[in-house]
Amino acid sequence: MSELNRLLIANRGEIAVRIIRAAKMMEMDTIAVYSEQDKHSMHSRLADDAKSLGYGTSKDTYLNIDKLIKLAEDCRADAIHPGYGFLSERADFAQRVVDAGFSWVGPPVDAIKKLGGKLESRKIAAEAGIPVTPGTDNPVLPDQDAVQLAKEIGFPIMVKAAYGGGGLGMQVVRDEDELISAIKRTSKQAESAFGRSEIFLERFVEKTRHIEFQFMADSRGNVVHLGERECSIQRRHQKLIEEAPSPAINEEERERVGSLVKKLAKNVGYVNAGTAEFLYKDGEFFFNEVNARLQVEHPVTEMVTGKDLVVEQLRIASGKRLSWRQKDIQIKGHAIEMRINAEDPLNNFNPCPGRVSNSVLPVGFGVRFDTHIYNNYEVPYEYDSLLGKLIVHGENRLQAIYRAYYALSELAITGFPTNAAFHRVVLANKNFHKGNTSTSFIEENNVIPYIKEAFNRRVAAAFLTGIRSSKMILPNRSQNSNWKDLGRRESSGRGLS
Amino acid sequence: MNEEIEPRTTVTPIKKASKFQRERKSTKVIDENDPRFKKYDVELNGRSVQISYDKTTDEVVIDGKLYNFHVTEVDGYFIAAMGDHTYTIEHHDGQIFLEGRLIEFNFKASAPKLVRKKIKSGDEEIIGAPLPGQVVGFSVKVGDKVTSGQKILTLEAMKMQNEINCVITGIVEEIYVREGDLVKTNDKLVRIVVEKE
């Protein structure tokens, strides 16, 4: 391996922008790839070169291995960064990348294979001495054996796709009558979503916290862990708010689990960035899985450690040794990340893409906004609804919460509903202040009716003001064509934007 | 009214918001079908809602709850206050700011609708796709009895599994799509017919 000069980013959206920024700092040429729907997305503008993947669904574009390899060859890239999602955890893609002679900015193919299956990764974790959630060691079929195994583990049971991810392919079963049909259903879903239908059973631990450890390894056997993140605030098994450090765990637990995670990474010959996910309840850790890639929520770790993970990923991929030792990693202050999505919390969090008619993004001390949106950007409905991530850093948790709340109150994205109101409500919640978070926080604290109430109040306030002074407050009421209006605005020299 | 005008605050302070969240003061419930109300369609940041407004009393009813804001104009901006909740609204150069934050806001009187028919036998509901996506699973089959609000199918869009529910109670008469089909917005998915008595 040698110096990398041209990096192809096989991803889109916010993470592509994040990687391009890091690569520019390393003075690499960057090559973005885009589907035609994403032609005007920020990543294709920021990169030094942008190549089209054609028009189509993810399958034809960002998941099209042949096209990506061909493009990388055509533009003489020497490394490929997969980002998160899409092809980031696909061993076959990593293999093709390596075979074609490119550097793969990620873990070795072998490690991805070992950790990709949830069943294998559970075995590997157990070997490293990590406590694993009680569950089956092998895939189960929808038959009486499964019922027997489930009884041994104890209900409620989580039916899980062995090759699932992204919050899909899992289902909670509370009694044995539902078990077989749930296995059949999940297996079918997994087959269509991940191409593998294997299912296993695991005890479902209720009201847990989701805690994960970030680690980083180089190709010379050095491994460090960068502390934990807590990602308990979720909806539909997908994370919405992440923070570091977790308010629940102490220094001793961090060191103990951190070193177990390092051992796991060494055992599989891991290189580059990875995350070990755990469920945590009352002082007990239960291993969940390893994500062999960069994660969406990596910025919270960056904020509290002051280390740029993506730059380090690129350094490691070019064969350099890890720039830090364990003693260089110190957790300073507290960071919170909120995922701003084009989705409506008042309508079951259903996605609602559209055109960004206007956006004012928060800035200031300790505030970071990683995004790919800009005014007049059209959010395509083909991909996930993430618009950006608001990350704040504070001296302590409470300061971070306050900073986040007031930063959010500056955030304005118009054109379609976003979940910003949801974040504000959670941040103002006393139980969140106290650190009483769990994966069922939304239901337990009944936050949705309050978002509705706050929304209604704003509607009423705006309406009553508007109806009082409707000429003044509603400038866009004119039924004239936009052209006419534009002419007027131009002649009066106002509203030219 | 002889109220002292509160100092202008742009944002509900976090302490106030959390106190309010804990106490959950309930708002007065009111029948919005009273003829003194006129209906308006209001859109705030891409989310539409229908409200009822009484011109004489300046009362607004949303979802059956009363919102009674007192609006004052101070130096070119407005303060709407209800109880100890205040919102500052400012208009400048074609843009509206609520709590100092740019919003998209519009309203118009609701088009007079025909009096809503009572659901009777033979009525039907055709469920259309709310957004483009892929049908990944049905919870019902033709001939099933369904009750209002029941989950009918799952539509995967933007990497999310979205539950599509029905509005009326009846029998699944026809399913227009198959599992795995890609659908566009407003494509017909399922037809449900109210059971004949």
Task: Note the main attributes of this structure.
heterodimer; A: 497 residues; alpha+beta; Rossmann fold; Dna Ligase, domain 1; D-amino Acid Aminotransferase, Chain A, domain 1; eight-stranded antiparallel beta sheet; five-stranded parallel beta sheet; B: 197 residues; mainly beta; OB fold (Dihydrolipoamide Acetyltransferase, E2P); 2 domains; five-stranded antiparallel beta sheet; 18 strands; elongated
Describe the structure.
The complex is a heterodimer of chains A (497) and B (197). Chain A has helices spanning 13-25, 42-46, 65-74, 91-99, 109-116, 118-127, 144-153, 176-194, 251-267, 298-305, 309-317, 397-408, 420-427, 430-433, 441-444, 447-468, 470-473, 482-492, and strands at residues 6-9, 29-34, 49-52, 79-81, 103-104, 157-165, 168-173, 199-203, 209-217, 223-235, 238-244, 272-281, 284-291, 334-341, 343-344, 350-351, 358-360, 367-371, 386-394, 412-414. Chain A has 18 helices and 20 strands. Chain A has four domains: 6-105, 3-Layer(aba) Sandwich (Rossmann fold); 134-203, ATP-grasp fold, A domain (Dna Ligase, domain 1, 2-Layer Sandwich), CATH 3.30.1490.20; 209-453, ATP-grasp fold, B domain (D-amino Acid Aminotransferase, Chain A, domain 1, 2-Layer Sandwich); 460-492, no CATH class. Chain B has two domains: 26-109, no CATH class; 124-193, RNA polymerase II/Efflux pump adaptor protein, barrel-sandwich hybrid domain (OB fold (Dihydrolipoamide Acetyltransferase, E2P)), CATH 2.40.50.100. The mean pLDDT of chain B is 82. The interface between A and B is large, with 74 and 62 residues.
